[in-house]
Specification:
Elements lengths: L2 H7 L6 H40 L3 H14 L4 H14 L2 H14 L4 H13 L3 H14 L4 H13 L3 H14 L4 H13 L3 H15 L5 H14 L2 H14 L4 H13 L3 H14 L4 H13 L3 H14 L3 H13 L3 H14 L4 H13 L3 H12 L6 H11 L1
Length: about 400
């Protein structure tokens, strides 16, 4: 075979340039694939490290990891959620919202972004928005008990009794002893003044807890009894709570208020003053203590406590207390002037009209007493005490 014939028959002859180009393209593709694989591995490692740092509350370092990821991939869902979680941990919820929203723009339905976004709206007290986002989450995972209880809590916050109760009960169908649903139902019924139903759920919590009962369960049961005016039962639970924490505000307040309801003013004062030992500038408690001293006939002490409350901040009931002291001391005009000023600021407070009418009556001005009660009724307001007092005067 001649050299010319060999050259013509060579498989490389005439195809050299094309072969070279294909080879270089293959190498470039391999390099690109290798580079992309390296990026994926780097992102994966940074992501793992970032989330571990978040768990350890090393937030600036975690943010550094997530920023490195975003330098590689602007819309990486792990990094955007991580940045949102970091902002949420710092309490900068508005900033967190922006990261979660950015993630959802490019990765719709991302459960972690939805969860974080809803939690931010909850923290910002934007409960309707939180519900909307949690409902989106439930389209992807409708059996997530954590999300369901948070939805129920949000409905409770916006005073949607029907939806809140329905979701809590749905959780209990899935998990009979779920504490968050039981506690939520207790709070829900309490908020709507259904104290017996609230008591049912708090007693369930007591039953499940056995010996290791949370102090908040004890004070919640005590509060239900306080509202139902079964004061002896309430006192028993508040005392159990104080056995766990002698300085617990809610237990001390509950005991003071129960004894107040039983007209045991000296016992109530014991607990009002124990609260004031811890918080001497609590104007509400100062006013309650003033009321107790007034009911015991110790007017000097009552006036002192009312004035201490008013030195902190204006308080309707402290001024009312001073007016009542003036009334029982026969200083009717002084009491009347104070009550009239209070009515200008709180026109729907029926107690002010009752006290004003009583002042006029004690002065022998029956028609002015009737007129003051009718002024309340002219506002379209109804109150049994006002109606009964008015009818009694007219008869």
């Amino acid at each position: 075979m001649s050299d010319e014939t060999r050259q013509k028959s060579s498989p490389i002859q005439g195809t050299g340039p094309s072969y070279k180009m294909g080879f270089e393209g293959t190498v470039a593709s391999l390099d690109t694939a290798r580079s992309e694989e390296q990026e994926r591995e780097e992102i994966s490692e940074l992501s793992k490290k970032g989330y571990q740092l978040l768990k350890e509350d090393r937030i600036p370092e975690a943010i550094g990891c997530f920023n490195k990821i975003l330098g590689i991939d602007d819309y990486n869902n792990y990094a955007l959620v991580g940045m949102g979680d970091a902002a949420r941990k710092r309490g900068t919820f508005k900033e967190a919202v922006l990261f979660y929203q950015r993630c959802l723009t490019h990765h719709p339905g991302n459960n972690y972004a939805l969860f974080g976004l809803a939690d931010c709206y909850k923290a910002l007290s934007q409960y309707h928005k939180a519900i909307e986002i949690w409902e989106q989450y439930l389209r992807y995972d409708d059996k997530n008990i954590t999300v369901l209880t948070r939805v129920a809590d949000a409905y409770r916050k916006v005073r949607d009794f029907k939806h809140s109760k329905a979701v809590y009960l749905r959780v209990l169908e899935m998990e009979e002893q779920n504490p968050y649903a039981i506690i939520g139902l207790g709070h829900l019924h309490y908020d709507f003044k259904e104290y017996r139903d609230a008591l049912f759920y708090w007693e369930k919590m007591l039953e499940f807890a056995k010996e290791n009962v949370d102090i908040r369960v004890l004070t919640s049961i005590g509060n239900c009894h306080r509202k139902l005016k079964t004061f002896d039962s309430g006192i028993a639970f508040f005392e159990k709570a104080l056995g766990k924490d002698p300085y617990n505000f809610y237990a001390l307040f509950g005991l003071a208020d129960c004894y107040r309801g039983m007209n045991q003013q000296s016992r109530s004062l014991e607990y009002w003053n124990r609260i004031l030992n811890q918080d001497p500038r609590n104007k509400v408690i100062l006013t309650r203590a003033g009321d107790a001293y007034r009911n015991l006939g110790d007017y000097d002490q009552a006036v002192d406590y009312y004035r201490r409350a008013l030195n902190i901040e204006f308080d309707t009931y402290a001024v009312l207390g001073l007016a009542v002291v003036a009334k029982v001391q026969g200083k009717y005009d002084e009491a009347i002037e104070s009550l009239k000023r209070l009515i200008q600021q709180d026109a729907k407070n029926y107690r002010l009209y009752l006290e004003l009418a009583d002042c006029f009556l004690r002065k022998g001005e029956k028609f002015k007493a009737i007129e003051s009660l009718e002024n309340f009724q002219r506002q379209g307001l109804r109150n049994t005490y006002i109606m009964d007092f008015c009818e009694k005067l007219k008869s």
